[in-house]
């Protein structure tokens, strides 16, 4: 078997999987910026919103950072994979970018 992966035939966000007589390109984990194999432990570097922890790229919980990310009045932070979103607290609704009581 010729190792086609030796010539790096895949795109930056993929890794090469050598198979008998061929190869396939597989998508890197969402936490990766480039990778050498499957999973968050094979990242070349971590994608934005992720950090290296115990040799793996793990989600940064922006809502628990010392500096608040949702700074508007009556707004709550919800952590998402690789990011976060700011939503109006319960009993409030977004009116032109401001959380007003419902």
UniProtKB/TrEMBL annotation:
Gene3D superfamilies: Laminin (2.10.25.10). Residues 59-98 form the EGF-like domain. GO terms for molecular function: calcium ion binding. InterPro entries: ECM_structural_protein, EGF, EGF-like_Ca-bd_dom, EGF-type_Asp/Asn_hydroxyl_site, EGF_Ca-bd_CS, Furin_repeat, NOTCH1_EGF-like. Pfam families: EGF_CA. PROSITE patterns: ASX_HYDROXYL (PS00010), EGF_3 (PS50026), EGF_CA (PS01187). SUPFAM superfamilies: EGF/Laminin. Keywords: Disulfide bond, EGF-like domain, Repeat, Signal. Belongs to the CRELD family. PANTHER family: EGF-LIKE DOMAIN-CONTAINING PROTEIN (PTHR24034), PROTEIN DISULFIDE ISOMERASE CRELD2 (PTHR24034:SF110). This is CRE2A protein. The gene is Creld2a.
């Amino acid at each position: 078997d010729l190792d086609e992966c030796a010539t790096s035939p895949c795109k930056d966000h993929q890794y090469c999987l050598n198979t008998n007589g061929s190869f396939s390109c597989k998508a890197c984990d969402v936490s990766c910026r480039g990778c050498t194999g499957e999973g968050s432990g094979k990242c070349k570097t971590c994608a934005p919103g992720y950090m290296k922890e115990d040799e793996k790229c793990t989600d940064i919980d922006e809502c628990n950072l010392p500096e608040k990310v949702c700074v508007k009045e009556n707004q709550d932070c919800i952590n998402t994979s690789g990011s976060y979103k700011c939503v109006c607290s319960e009993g409030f609704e977004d009116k032109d970018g401001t959380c007003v009581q419902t």
